[in-house]
Automatic annotation (TrEMBL):
A Pfam family assignment: ADH_N
Cofactor: Zn(2+)
Protein name: S-(Hydroxymethyl)glutathione dehydrogenase / alcohol dehydrogenase
GO molecular function, one term: zinc ion binding
Length: 349
């Protein structure tokens, strides 16, 4: 197949500004460990909104490409690639899997270098590192596949690897977006109880109930502390998961964690916005920790989760609630910020 020389892509040119849809030049050839993928679908994660809004501070890599969960078909592979071949259907993910950690791709835009990470998916084609690509079955739905790039692997990984939630343990999940819904689904799969979803939008809470939440709390309408303790008892919850990155929510979540429970931080606070907790319980059995994508291993977890989906044990069809074209990506971002999108939205290339 002829190697494409250009593509349309969403470029972050300036922080806190809309993405620009631009024509970008692809590299003339692949470097070692690189894989060229024709992108079919991309998901949008809250992490990309954080990048656009600059929650981690000044971005030294502007302008650059974005996106870290997607599906597509492999068009070509570079030297030394052994796990992937042309024609493979794949998931693209930001967590490292098996294979080579390749050099970063060298795109050109307006005659200058355009920065990009080991995987980007807000583009019609992507030069991806071999270890950010996992092969999926030939007949697997390409619109479902992007969810395994982040939302599913992170959400279920939080349950399995971070919280290590056990049968009958209680859990509170702050933030019922794409990742939060999979945390809730994972908690239901291990028979946790109660599973308490907390959000500021009723539409997201209704979706959380579909994924296994037993109790719903709208934090704009209820006293979260009083409501949670009424459900769990005064000891609090065995596990509290924060997906919001809001330090006030994190502080409250830590308070609501039992003396031998786990507070897991998935969302990332803005740079300089620090939490304030009473640390004495940490010297005993209480624990607070950050999650890095649920500590997922894509090469192992994605095939396992695909089998669950194929056998009706993983609800993903109802996770996708909105679809957009690449040209509508800023509309999608605005709807995510406003809470109008209840689950995961897809960008179709």
């Amino acid at each position: 197949m002829e190697f494409p020389d250009s593509m349309r892509a969403a470029v972050l040119v300036k922080q806190s500004y809309p993405l620009q849809i631009e024509h970008v030049q692809l590299p003339e050839k692949l470097n070692y460990g690189q894989v060229l993928v024709k992108v079919h679908y991309s998901g949008i994660c809250g992490s990309q909104i954080g990048e656009i809004d600059g929650i981690k501070g000044n971005d030294p890599f502007l302008p650059h490409l974005l996106g870290h969960e997607g599906s597509g078909e492999v068009l070509a592979v570079g030297p030394c690639v052994r796990r992937i071949k042309s024609g493979d259907k794949v998931v693209m993910h930001w967590r490292k899997g098996s294979g080579i950690d390749s050099p970063l791709p060298e795109y050109q835009w307006n005659g200058k270098k355009l920065n990009a990470g080991f995987v980007t998916t807000f583009n019609e084609y992507a030069v991806v590192s071999e270890n950010r690509v996992t092969v999926i079955p030939e007949n697997f739905p390409m619109d479902i596949a992007p969810l395994f790039g982040c939302a599913v692997t992170t959400g279920l990984g939080v349950i399995n690897n971070n919280a290590k939630l056990k049968i009958g343990e209680s859990i509170v999940v702050f933030g019922a977006g794409g990742v939060g819904l999979n945390v809730i689904q994972g908690a239901a799969m291990v028979s946790a109880h109660p599973i308490i979803a907390v959000d500021i939008y009723d539409n997201r809470l209704e979706k959380a109930a579909q994924f296994g939440a037993t109790h719903l709390i709208n934090s704009r309408k209820e006293d979260v502390r009083a409501s949670v303790l009424k459900i769990t008892g005064k000891t609090g919850a065995d596990a509290v998961i924060d997906n919001t990155g809001d330090t006030d929510v994190i502080n409250l979540g830590y308070e609501l964690t039992s003396v031998n429970g786990r507070t897991i931080l998935v969302g990332v606070p803005a740079k300089g916005d620090n939490i304030s907790i009473y640390s004495l319980p940490l010297h005993f059995e209480k624990n607070i920790s950050g999650s890095h994508g649920g500590e997922a291993n894509p090469s192992i977890d994605i095939p396992n989760y695909i089998r669950l989906y194929q056998n009706g044990k993983l609800n993903l069809d109802h996770l996708i609630t909105d679809r957009f074209t690449l040209g509508e990506i800023n509309i999608a971002m605005d709807k995510m910020r406003s809470g109008k999108i209840t689950g995961r939205c897809l960008i179709k290339m």
